Fold each of these.
Amino acid sequence: MVSPTDFFAALKQQDIGPFVGVPCSLINSLIAYATDHPNEVDHVNPVHESHAMAYAAGTYMATGKLPMVYMQNSGFGNIINPLTSLHQIYDIPAILLVTWRAEKGYGTDAPEHWIVGRDMEKYFDTFCLPYRIMHDADWAAQIKELADEARATKKPTVLCVKKGMFEPYTMQAKETSVSVLESMDVLRALKDSLPNAAFLSTTGMLSRESFTAKDTPDFYMMGSMGLISGIAAGCAEHTKKLVVALDGDGAAMMHMGQMPFIGNKKYKNLLHIVLDNAAYSSTGGQPSVAPTVDFAAVARACGYHSAETITTQQELDAALSGVSHLSGPVLWHIKVRATHHHDIARVSDKYTCPDVTQNFSQILTS
Ligand SMILES: Cc1ncc(C[n+]2csc(CCOP(=O)(O)OP(=O)(O)O)c2C)c(N)n1
């Protein structure tokens, strides 16, 4: 296993940086170390993998430096556009650190990784990306080769990282969430107060927490990070039921562009809730940029009927007491504590993805 200290020392030796991307649990020790050592590692955390590619392109043109863009293989799909229509045609190099969840393919790891995990190497070939699968023995030489090739060709190259490559490192940085509310309590209260609503929850810790707090026939999304409010919009258009989209701060920011659409369409039966723990909890609790975002103000500016920020039990109780008269689209920005209970059940322990679709469709159409 490689220590984060050695890894970043090797990047420094090859003059590679900044280290920019969206987290994956397979590299949480690298991100934690980078977060704790801002003077040693130039680390930047945009909200979407394509934004990381864009930032890297800007950095290269401004400095000539060779950035490393990190992402989970789930996020590889998010970079195809800037990869092929920015970096590769404008001669803008970078090293892409792509993690490899579900490297053993179908039926291994969580279901959202099966299809992309099965074919990683084919994707690298298809997109003309020279790559190395990181090896314990010669990883530093691999990084040098990838850097040399990226610089010589002015095109991106890939360091593909499997599970267990990096030594653990525990982040020292303090919790940035200011709330006293616990997400599991909030979720239970929401589900108890809204027994007839159709709930959808985002990938991340939220679907697992919602399922554990109260197992109702919801659309528990395990992949497609950030798309829950868009799916909820499609439901709200076609049902009279109250549709509740449970979003995470990281997920909501990843596809915030759905909010102007929801505001424009004025779905009266849509309640969009952002449970904001100021972190990417499910990939290791890396801080997100949510503390500087006023989600309620964004929602109002996008045309939601109303929006509020909730940080206390009293505010939550008050919001829930008026929920039967709700006229949407409404956004509640609920700030919750960043708790990292990784021992809780996974939805996939009980339901397959098609089960989830079927159960939820029945609720929507009943
Ligand atoms: C496109 C994409 N990028 C990255 C990931 C890896 N990932 C899964 S959950 C998650 C964090 C989600 O954070 P947030 O929405 O704040 O929810 P939390 O886990 O804190 O509940 C990340 C980065 C992913 N699944 N898909």
Amino acid sequence: MPKCPKCGADVEIPYKTWYMSRKSSRHQGVLKIGFGMFKCPQCENKFRAGVKTKEEKELRIKSVAEKAKGIEVEFVNMLKNLREKLKTLQTERGNLLLEIDELKKMAESKADALESEIGMLKEEVESLKQLLGVGELGI
Ligand SMILES: [Zn+2]
């Protein structure tokens, strides 16, 4: 959208347009150039600026559509990769949970063993105390 050279306001619609054809090596031999006269709604400054021809607009729409298609493909690939990554992570998580479970069981049985050992040692201490008469002497 052209901007007013005086105040910088956007001026959307020209009040007059004309087109010129130029020979071009690209654009199938002929390049159409559009001009428009614009009047700024803010400061009423009149100025000339290029306008987009229909062909240019169509070309732009086409390239935007192609870009969107490319983004779509990229997005689908990204989703695919993410899904695979998630799968791997979930498997890893499952394995880790199993490992943690085993470690927990190991720790529990070790704690159990220690507990019964402590119980046995306590009993031993008690019987030694009784044997020495520590409790009776009040030491
Ligand atoms: Zn202006």
